[in-house]
Amino acid sequence: MLVDQPIKSFLDEDFLLQTDTARRLYHDYAKAMPIIDYHCHLPPDQIAADKTFENLTQIWLYGDHYKWRAMRTNGVAEKYCTGDASDYEKFQKWAETVPYTMRNPLYHWTHMELKNPFGVETVLNGATAREVYDRCTEQLPGMSTRTLLRHFNVKTVCTTDDPTDSLEHHKKIAADGFEVKVLPTFRPDKAMAIDDVAVFQAYVTRVGAVCNQEIRSLDTFLECLKQRHDYFAQAGCRLSDHGLELIYAEPYTESEVSSVFQKLLSTSPLTETESLQFKSYMLDRFAEWDWEKGWTQQFHLGALRNNNKRALRTLGPDTGWDSIGDFRQASPLARFLGGLDDRDQLAKTILYNLNSGDNEVMATMIGNFNDGSMPGKIQFGSGWWFQDQKEGMQKQINALSNMGLLSRFVGMLTDSRSFLSYPRHEYFRRILCNIFGNDVENGELPNDIDWIGKLVQDICYNNAKEYFKF
Question: For residues 442, 444, 450 and 453, what is the CA-based torsion angle, rounded to 10 degrees?
Fold first, then answer.
């Protein structure tokens, strides 16, 4: 006879934990582990100023293209996303959208972020918008940026910064003695972005101004960027990051690339091969500098950006018009990593993949270059952007488990601009513990709770601590 099972409460303490073993792994081993947020887009000026926010919209909706994208899909006018509607009007439209986000990760994230740190367990919708808005907003004076980082038990934050950045805010944070390390990450994408020549020329001028040099040659351009790389290292930087459609690995000679740079300065058109040669050359130089300093290089691969040209013209980039690309990743990635390895100049590397169809490509690629010099030197990074939801995380974890060593994984990051995004680590940890718990209770893994608990803690925190050595 079938026995009716009680319906679980939404977002209770055992949310996403389907077995007793999963619950034990999460509550006894994973939950209390600190956080190393080794890749995010938090604004360092707000941490330096220990900023507080006037209302829930400012801390929660400003700059959040995930929410804007959902609102537009729900028929909400741009006025309430990036436009001139009042903060409360924008929140009301978001609240009205939330019930329609069921089975989108936004529904989980929204309610997890209301519960922690605000303690609000009310389901958000149009009717509850005012209550939720007021209850959260009245708590905000006590929730500065630094207070929130302490609350979520964050030990290290790595922001994402252009080579020309002064890093003045990072220096102030360090001088203040703030116990959470806030370190820059070297993100030189604009130094390779040559598709719009006028924009690239302006960036070359900007680099020269920061270094007090007039840049008229490739050598001078590299010299200035190397100065900035050294400057970042002095400020505590230990990572670089690159947001690319795919890795560039076109054969080149230095004289060819030098000629390409002169053509860029003179606005002469480039062939496709010349463009790929320049990008490949620059990527090699950045990788060599990272290796010299013992940094970790990160590659976020596979995004097809700025697809809506009308929206790009009116709203600018990073406003919610990007998608997953279907680029051929394997061969150029193998050539790039292989070339560095052959010269014994391959730094620690993390590959983030946006197209889950390439998960096995990435999970097997890292095995080609893990050379035994350290555990997990080459990493398959956590589910990124469109993949940092439950199924995307599960797919990444399963691919890594099947093709490599999940036990050596450096775990989750926020990749967010919001100080309220840290429950994403909780989300990841619950999913991870549920996977292990199910395997134990299915007899697919031994019931060695102490060992599996240790592996869970390693993935949540210890592996990252050892890997990055902040």
Answer: -80
User: Between helices 65-73 and 105-115, what is the axis angle to 10°?
Assistant: 130
- What is the number of structural domains in the chain? 2
Whether 272 and 375 map to the same domain: the answer is yes
Q: Round to whole Å and give the CA distance between 236 and 410.
A: 20
d(CA 52, CA 59): 9
For the purposes of burial, counting CB atoms within 10 Å of the CB of 327, is it exposed (0-12), middle (13-18) or buried (19 or more)?
Answer: middle
In this structure, are 369 and 420 located in the same domain?
Answer: yes
Segment 98-120, tens digit of pLDDT: 999 999 999 999 999 999 999 99
Residue 9 included in any domain: no
Tens digits of residue pLDDT in 138-158: 999 999 999 999 999 999 999
Are 47 and 59 contained in the same domain?
Answer: no
Domain range for 118: 53-143
Q: pTM here?
A: 0.96
Q: And the tokens for 347?
A: 């730094």
